[in-house]
Structures are given as structure tokens and as C-alpha cells.
Amino acid sequence: MSTIDEDLSKAAPGPLALVQALVNTQYGQGRRAHVDLTSPEQLRAWLVAHRLLPDGTPVSEGDFRRVVQLREALRSLLGANNERETPASQVDVFNRLASNAPLTVRFQHDGVPTLEPDIADVDGAIARLVGIVFTAMTDGTWARLKACRNERCQKAFYDTSRNRSGAWCSMAGCGSRFKARAYRHRRAAHDV
After folding, report:
1. If you write DSSP's letter for every residue of 113-152 in order, what string do you get?
2. What's the pTM value of the predicted model, to 2 decimals?
3. Which residues have CB under 8 Å from 79's CB, separation 6+?
């Protein structure tokens, strides 16, 4: 793996890594598809493992559907960070989910304010993720969390390039395939 690939595949900093991890519970298509969450039970285990839900808390089919909707709305928002248009319908989904996941400002002992869920269970996990997104948007880290420009991939990656120009989750994988495809297309157009 090259230095560029290592830089682009790094986890997002701090709590933003949770948003990246959620988006990356599913990406890719066909043989290259990666799917971690296919049931409420898997979602519960994922939320518990990421300390977003106390162990033993039930997760319903409706909870599962809402988290999957959140994941795909987040993927669309990350696509906008990589020069892709965000469908208004996905912004509406995100806003609807956020409106049912109230947050409150809490001050830490050092005086630093944080956004904390003002609700429990899965809605509390959604609220925590929404709060992380808001905080990342205000502290400037959000713009570096992107969805791979490869439509067949769309894996979330944290762009650590100096000029924020990273477009692919991996230059050796998605970037190389895109460049090879573009070369073949140019070559075919030239041969005509």
C-alpha cells in the first residue's frame, strides 16, 4: 500500500470515526460488496460494541430501518464532500431523523460544551451521531470525511491530503480502476 493509500484510509479523528464506521457497515456492489448490518440483532451488537447503546437494550425492526436510513443519508452528505450532489430527499431523511433525536448542551468540567442525547435507546444513539456530525461541521473536520467517488464503492474515508483533494478510498483500488477505465475510454475514442 502506498503512502497516499495509507493516508486516505485512516480513520476519522475522535468521535467522527463513529460516523465513518456506521457508513462503512455497508459499501460496494457485487463481488466487492461489504455488508455488516442485516438485522436488528446485528445492529444491536454494533451499537453496543461502539458504546452507543447499553447491552441488553432491545432493537426493533423500526429501529433497524431508521439507522439504515441514517447511514444512507450520511453517505449522501459525505458524497457532497467529494463533489457529488446530495439528493434533497436524503437531506429530508436526515432532518426527520434528527428531529426525533433531541440533543442538549452539557458542559464538561473543563468548561468545554458538548452535545449529548436527551433521549435513550436507539434514538439516543441516533442523537449522538447527529451531534457528532454537527460538531464536526463546526470544527472543520466534516469536510474531510468523504464517500469514495467510485459509484460502485462509496466507502467512507477521511481525507488527510494537504489540499483536501482525495477522491478515492484507495488509490490502488478505486482510483486505479477509474484511471484504467478512463484510459480505455480515451483510447477507444482515439481509435475510432
Report:
1. EEEEESS-HHHHHHHHHHHHHHHHHHHT-GGGEEE-S-TT
2. 0.83
3. 85, 86, 146, 147, 154
